[in-house]
Design a protein that fits this description.
homodimer; six-stranded antiparallel sheet; 3 helices; 14% helix; disordered C terminus; DNA-binding; RNA polymerase II cis-regulatory region sequence-specific DNA binding (chains A, B); transcription (chains A, B); DNA-binding transcription factor activity, RNA polymerase II-specific (chains A, B); DNA-binding (chains A, B); transcription regulation (chains A, B)
DNA sequence: CCCTTTTCACCTAGGTGGTAAGAT
DNA sequence: ATCTTACCACCTAGGTGAAAAGGG
């Protein structure tokens, strides 16, 4: 996943469905992203894989919480829709003041989804960390990813270009012909 | 104000500041638009004014409520910002299903702003009408306007073009030269 | 005749990876 | 040598009034 100073959307975006909420209770739904380990990685081109390239200490950093913009909302409404986190932005700027999720490049991460029971004390404009109770957290192994500032191999670049509507400008078939003719 | 079937933004947008809320209570803030009278108007070009052109019965129509997208939010947060209704859309389509505010063309209207105390029963996704209590309503005489499907005189057209960033394409000075040379 | 609808060029606003220069 | 930054062309997405066509 490319991360920049200004912030880039996470793509493909995390999308979930929820069940077994109380239809009449109010919930926040939120996402954060935590390190998979404390390793720094580098991509070894000739063997086409990520290799450990050192250690990092994530221990003192509390990950930022991204509250889904529909929050708070009734259980009934949440359960009726696919919940998409397509507007969350990732940044490598540790001083970010736009509320984006801050990550370090060349590290492995996994998103978490939190379902938070609304209580009178919670304010959408002020929640910056998870409350102590009333929270259920879910992770999905298949959503793990590695952060970069530029893609390291052409398979991932192609995948991104083919799937993301905003990258349609790079799908020009003439653009690929050159590469294909190399073979 | 131009209204269309698809819905157009209200411009200039209604912007308000609020004071004397309880900083720790939660509030919804909403807008609706009600008729100034039950008259239909037409614009008389040679006298440059709107004239009564018949009666209409608005009595059976409950105006649609536009909930400010930041709702619900704490009094403290509401008071700290200018509250702008720049995303509300107006339509002349009585069958509209996109939640836009429905108005009739060639009528006079005035926006109202409502400050609504949050109660456990209120759900952002389900409020479609004003609750019976816990509501304070404000009107501002200077926000009255007349609806049209095409502008009736060049002063208002010029005002709209000059102020709205999306109409910059019509500001081209060459465009006005033709009209000016008529005199 | 008067008002409405449809389509359009021309904007704002913002999301892509590429590329060359910069930084360490 | 390796990673990052700044800027770019090229997209998506959507908000303007103009103009011509439509409708009663």
């Amino acid at each position: 996943m490319i991360i920049t100073k200004a912030g880039r959307r996470m793509f493909p975006s995390v999308r979930v469905k929820v069940k077994d909420l109380d239809p009449f209770k109010q919930y926040y739904i939120a996402m954060d992203i935590i390190p998979v380990d404390s390793k720094r990685y580098r991509y070894v081109y000739h063997s086409s894989q990520w290799m450990v390239a050192g250690n990092t200490d994530h221990s003192c950093i509390t990950p930022r919480l991204y509250i889904h913009p529909d929050s708070p909302c009734s259980g009934e409404t949440w359960m009726r829709q696919v919940i998409s986190f397509d507007r969350v932005k990732l940044t490598n700027n540790e001083m970010d003041d736009k509320g984006h999720i801050i990550l370090q490049s060349m590290h492995k991460y996994k998103p978490r989804v939190h379902v938070i029971v609304h209580s009178a004390k919670l304010d959408l404009a002020q929640i910056h960390s998870l409350p102590d109770e009333g929270v259920k957290t879910f992770i999905f192994k298949e959503t793990e990813f590695t952060t970069v500032t530029a893609y390291q191999n052409q398979q991932i670049t192609k995948l991104k270009i083919d799937r993301n509507p905003f990258a349609k400008g790079f799908r020009d078939p003439g653009r690929n012909r050159l590469e294909k003719n190399i073979f």
